[in-house]
Amino acid sequence: MESTKQTTRSWNEVRMDGREESITSLRSEYDDGSTLETFVAVDDRNEIRRWNVRTYVDGDVIMVETRNAAGELCRTKRIRVADRDRTRKHIEDGATVTSDGVYRWISNGAVIPLDVLEEAGYEITEAHRAARDRDVDEAIAAYRKARASMTDEERAEELAEMRAAFGPGETVVDVLSGERFEL
C-alpha cells in the first residue's frame, strides 16, 4: 500500500504530572483512506515514548488502534460512521473556527474537546490544543476559587453526602483541588 501524503508536525505539551515534553508526529495517509500516525515524545528528563495510531474504516465503523513501541495493542476505539457524521454536523452547525484552527462552540465560546474533534475526523492543531489547555486551566482555577468560598453549611452538607455515598472511615480526595476528606 503506497502512502499518498505525509505530514509532520511538532508541539510542546505539559503532562498531567507537570513534566514538559516535546512531541513530533509523522502522519501517513494511504490511498484506501487509512492513516498511520507515529508519535515520538521526549520529556524534560530525556525519556522517550513512542506510539502509533492507525485509523481505518471497517464496514460502517471507523477503527482507531493505538499501539506502543513494541507494537502491542493498547487501545481500540470504534466510532460508527453515523456517529462521526452526526458529530461532524453538530460541529459544522454549532461551532466557529479561528484562522489558526481553534474550534469553539458558538453557544458558550468554549474550545471543543479534543475527543469530539477526533471522533468527527478533524485535524487537531497545536493552537487548538493550547487553547483547550487554557480553557481547562481557567475552569479548574474557577472551581478551586468556588470551593474556597464555600460556607461551613455547604461543606457540612457535602461531607454528609460523601459519607452517605462512600461510608464512614473512607478517605476521599478531590483531584482538582487536592483536598482530602476523612469521612
Write the layout of secondary structure elements.
Blueprint: E1 3-14, E2 20-30, E3 35-43, E4 48-58, E5 61-68, E6 73-80, H1 81-94, E7 95-97, E8 103-105, H2 114-120, H3 126-148, H4 152-166, E9 171-173, E10 180-182
Helix pairs in contact: 1-2
Features:
183 residues, alpha+beta, 2 domains, six-stranded antiparallel beta sheet, two-stranded antiparallel ribbon, 10 strands, 32% helix, globular
Distance between the termini: 59 Å
Question: What is the mean pLDDT?
Answer: 87
Helix content: 25-40%
Radius of gyration, in angstroms, nearest whole number: 21 Å
Overview of the molecule:
It is a single chain. The protein is of the alpha+beta class and 183 residues long. The protein folds into 2 domains: 139 residues, no CATH class; 33 residues, no CATH class. The protein is 32% helix and 39% strand. It is built from 4 helices and 10 strands, in the order ββββββαββαααββ. A 6-stranded antiparallel sheet has the order 1-2-3-4-5-6. The chain has a two-stranded antiparallel ribbon with strand order 7-8. It has a two-stranded antiparallel ribbon with strand order 9-10. A hairpin with a 4-residue loop joins strand 2 and strand 3. The chain is globular, with a radius of gyration of 21 Å. 5% of the residues are buried.
